[in-house]
Amino acid sequence: MNLRKTGHIDIYHGKEISDPYVWMEDMLSDDVKNFVMEENSNTEKYLSRIPFRDKIRSRLTELADYTRYSSVIKAGEFIFYFKNDGLQNQDILYRQKGTEAEPAVFLDPNEFSSEGTIAVIEVSVSPDNRYLAYAISKDGSDWEEIFIMEIESGKKLDDCIKWVRYSSISWYKDGFFYNRYEEVKGDKFKEINKSPETYFHIPGELQSEDKLIFEDKEDAEKSFAVFSDQDQTFLFRTEFIKSKSGNRIFYHDLSPDQNLTDAVYIPLTEDHENEWNLIEADGRYLYFITNKDASRYKITKYNTSDKTFSDIIPENEMVIENAVIAERKLIVKYLKDAHNVIIVYDLNGNFENEIELPGIGTAIFNYTKKSFNEIFFTYSSFNRPEIILKYNISEKLISIFKENEIHYDADSIESKQVFYESKDGTKIPMFLIFRKGIELNGKNPVLLYGYGGFDISMTPDFKSQRILFIENGGIFAIACLRGGGEYGEEWHKAGMKLNKQNVFDDFISAAEYLIKNNYTSPDKLAAQGRSNGGLLIGAVINQRPELFKVALPAVGVMDMLKFHKFTIGWNWISDFGSSEDPAQFRSLLNYSPLHNIKPVNYPATLITTSDHDDRVVPLHSYKYAATLQELKTGNNPVLLRVGTNSGHGMGIPVSKAIDETTDIWSFVFYNLEMEIN
């Protein structure tokens, strides 16, 4: 494909940087549409020649076809949860009275769209259990719309709240707080999103009547949220700025008939250097998880009467990940070597007991109130689908509320955790999932997955599509790279900004470990990552192209000099830094996937993105694919697959997920010369 190139030059701190495919930033242009159409056509031609593609699709469909449950919400006498019978494009919200009654459909998003491209991404119940508000996303976009239903009758109100983005639905008295942006007049999948505003909505009223609660006219790149505690004793405002990974938090002591727009907030913190996450208020005390003077986090409480902090659960060798308060207990979820441990304390931080989990896995707290005598949480591991567990606090009993089906031989699959040394000697954990009895002969196909950023931890979870690879002799490896949150804020900072090369070194060292220890060889090794992980794969195959046979960069941030100029990209400066800073510019230029492509033999590469991705806009992948196809040598294919009517990955319909995974696994199996059973 002979693509048009321009002589466009950008100048950064006196250095000229060529951007010949800058025209691809106009994603609505006919030229870009034609480019995408031709790329998809070429990719389809390649994939259609793979003889076992239909067999892969059939097996993936079988693996996805199982009943699964998630996200319990308790509202008065009702319990809500999501359920999917298997191949439904979107999970359905069910309602039942108590834990034993028959459930009934309350909200079915599959009725919203014939293609199943409208997803419910959040639900929130009013304090009086009268209303359930829910947010939807269309075609995978981060833009949301909020609607409201009466819980008792199931009636949908006429309310429709638009131009919402990255917002919670935070109830207070007879309404809720939400964040919105100004209506975008241009390309809403590219235009930069700044100057958020917090509004208060009362059910039954028009959005135009909503009260403006907070805005910051001096800093358009500040983000924030307003919310109250469960007892509605305090209002809180938390704020973030683009250059810091911490937040400031403010509170307002509520009084009767307080006018929300006149609330005067008291700052609890003076800067944005540390994280402050409210657990809950209890009487005059505010309970927080913070990493101030505690890289692995601690729990502290603030006395609003005498304005003092006191630590109640100090930092230890495990990382505090989350906590809830229920029945006068503090229930704390820890990370221990990238898997969860849950411990119960009293409100003064005295140990009471550990909740025994089914094994090494990941637990996620569901909606909890202080008044609950039981809590619900989901649990999953690498070889077992999610189950919903119920824990009775006073009786210290754990039981299964809903259990997902198992439709394959789970006992034939095992997992283990290994630790390897990175380039600088740092010990890095890695999970390996494989079929029992696998022989370490250096010939096994391995897919190495990584992320390494934004304080996000790689923990055990279940993905049905992995089973296909594993049952056909593959090993799935997940490296817990620096930049994530597996070992607290120091671990995160070790992979941020000027330290970003550590993330790439960690991933390269994982590949070298797998080869050295006879799990695989370069001819049998694939590398995969999404979003920040797509950036990771792009950077790594520039630095060590000979180490991998297949590369799968998905929805990646590939232009590290311009990422902050599109949609919400400015918000990532806290992790990446910015090309507007001279030192950070040099660091970004040194690893930016787009700017370090060279004429060498790259791995067989399948680049995936989506036309409605308004988080990491697809122009990143377009420019990257065009440059890689132009400069690479050798016979390995470099393909671009652009999904339609889908976004960054949120709310993707089951049918589209199967289509995409079919193409990815077909590409992997074919290029790793795997046989499919």
Observed structural traits:
eight-stranded mixed sheet; alpha+beta; 34% strand
Question: Briefly, what is this?
Answer:
The chain is α+β, with helices and mostly antiparallel strands and 677 residues long.
User: How many β strands by DSSP?
Assistant: 38
Query: How many DSSP H or I helices?
Result: 10
Span of the ends, CA to CA: 36 Å
Helix share of residues? 10-25%
What best-fitting shape do the alpha-carbon axes yield? globular
Report on the structure:
- The protein has 677 residues and is an alpha+beta fold.
- It has 10 helices and 38 strands.
- An 8-stranded mixed sheet has the order 31-32-34-33-35-36-37-38, sandwiched between helices. A 4-stranded antiparallel sheet has the order 3-4-5-6, with no helix packed on it. Strands 7-8-9-10 form a 4-stranded antiparallel sheet, with no helix packed on it.
- A hairpin with a 2-residue loop joins β1 (9-12) and β2 (15-18).
- α5 (501-516) packs across α6 (532-543).
- It starts with 8 loop residues before the first strand and ends in a 6-residue tail after the last helix.
Architecture blueprint of SSEs:
Layout: E1 9-12, E2 15-18, H1 30-48, H2 53-64, E3 68-75, E4 78-84, E5 92-97, E6 104-107, E7 118-125, E8 131-138, E9 143-150, E10 161-165, E11 170-172, E12 175-180, E13 197-201, E14 211-214, E15 223-228, E16 234-240, E17 248-253, E18 266-267, E19 276-282, E20 285-290, E21 298-303, E22 308-313, E23 319-326, E24 329-336, E25 339-346, E26 351-355, E27 362-365, E28 374-380, E29 387-392, E30 397-403, E31 413-421, E32 427-435, E33 446-449, H3 464-471, E34 475-479, H4 489-493, H5 501-516, E35 525-530, H6 532-543, E36 550-554, H7 573-576, H8 582-591, E37 604-610, H9 619-631, E38 638-643, H10 654-671
Parallel strand pairs: 33-34, 33-35, 35-36, 36-37, 37-38
Antiparallel strand pairs: 1-2, 3-4, 4-5, 5-6, 7-8, 8-9, 9-10, 11-12, 12-13, 13-14, 15-16, 16-17, 17-18, 19-20, 20-21, 21-22, 23-24, 24-25, 25-26, 27-28, 28-29, 29-30, 31-32, 32-34
Helix pairs in contact: 2-3, 2-10, 5-6
